[in-house]
Amino acid sequence: MDVAAHSDDFQIAGVLSNRADAFGLVRAANAGIPTAIVNHTLYIDRATFDTALIEQIDSWQADLVVLAGFMRILTDGFVEHYNGRLINIHPSLLPKFKGLNTHARALEAGDAEHGCTVHFVCPELDAGAPIVQAATSVRADDSVQSLQERIHHLEHRIYPLAVEWFTAGRLTQHQGLALLDGQPLPPGGKRFEASL
Ligand code: NHR
């Protein structure tokens, strides 16, 4: 997400990475947003690392935690601490292709379309309630790279949208379902129509 482009309705409280070389830290600093690094290799186990994450995030008094390229599996304790206010974006049309190498797997499967999904995070990987989804047609000459590029554009459309819904108070999680304006969203989340 472009950290400089956000609505007046919310502020980015802070940007945290487990990696000191994450470019998002540079962009945040350039935009005057607080940053933090919590290096997972300095912690003896996942629970201790996650506790350090929680301390930092809660010191910012964040209402919503937005994962972006965050590659450490989070403990149940972390997920429960932010239950209903922790979201991720995954590069597939969930529930298809949970896990890694999604573009290669969509090509391998011969799927006619592929895309990305914003979802609430639950303890089980990539299995939380979908919020919003965007798709692109798979072309005969597509490669992993060409698909990835188109899907990146879609990610940049739907992730800010989900954040805006949440901060406007329109998006909630209830009994494992995502609700928009109090109504359950369809199984893949709201379908976002984009032309690419
Ligand atoms: N944590 C929970 N509990 N649930 C989810 O749905 C999560 C999560 C943490 C991260 C993002 C997800 C992605 O966007 C995400 C979803 C990392 C792995 C993984 O296997 C899996 C899914 C995601 C992110 N991580 C390895 C680990 O041992 C390390 C892999 C690596 O460093 O390259 O933590 O893709």
Question: What characteristic shape results from the CA principal axes?
Answer: globular
Number of strands: 10
N-end to C-end Cα span = 18 Å
What CATH calls the topology of the largest domain is Rossmann fold
The proportion of strand residues reads 15-25%
CATH superfamily of the largest domain: Formyl transferase, N-terminal domain
Give the low-pLDDT segments: none
Structural class: alpha/beta
The biggest beta sheet is recorded as: 5 strands, mixed
Query: What's the alpha carbon Rg, rounded to whole Å?
Result: 17 Å
Short overview:
By secondary structure, the chain is α/β, with parallel strands linked by helices.
What does this structure look like?
With 196 residues, this protein is of the alpha/beta class. The chain has two domains: 1-62, no CATH class; 66-192, Rossmann fold. Helices cover 31% and strands 21% of the residues. It has five helices and ten strands. It has helices at residues 23-30, 46-59, 76-81, 102-109, 144-167; strands at residues 15-17, 35-37, 65-66, 86-90, 113-120, 130-137, 171-174, 177-180, 183-184, 190-192. The strands form three sheets. A five-stranded mixed β-sheet has the order 3-4-5-6-10, with helices on one face. Helix 3 (76-81) links the parallel strand 3 (65-66) and strand 4 (86-90). The radius of gyration is 17 Å and the shape is globular. The two termini are 18 Å apart. Residues 67, 70-74, 79, 88, 90, 121, 123, 125-126, 128 line the site of ligand NHR.
